[in-house]
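Quick one: co-fold with zinc ion.
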Amino acid sequence: MAKHHHAMNDAFYRSAAWQQTRQAYGDAMGWLCERCRARGVIQRGSIVHHKRYLGMDPAVETALAWDNLELLCLDCHNREHMGGEPEVRVQYDASGMPAGVTRR
Ligand SMILES: [Zn+2]
Ligand SMILES: [Zn+2]
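Sure, here it is.
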């Protein structure tokens, strides 16, 4: 399995351009998880996920395009990256940066 894209693009995820895009997109979505909302569940989302995978050197138009973004809660995001019930959980801090990995 590919390594998690957030960990591979540290500099990008710390950039002002990303922080601004992330904030604006989250505001537009009301900070509610889009996948939970599609199932009729109101769940706060905190992670702006890229639908198309970003490589080591993400193109700005891919990295910052709203049609490539999806606001997810932790559970939906872990499911997206791990597939099914996660063995390893990646945890994120309030700004969406990976804060650590817990193995169970
Ligand atoms: Zn969700
Ligand atoms: Zn993601």
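If it helps, Strands lie at 47-50, 69-72, 88-92, 98-103.
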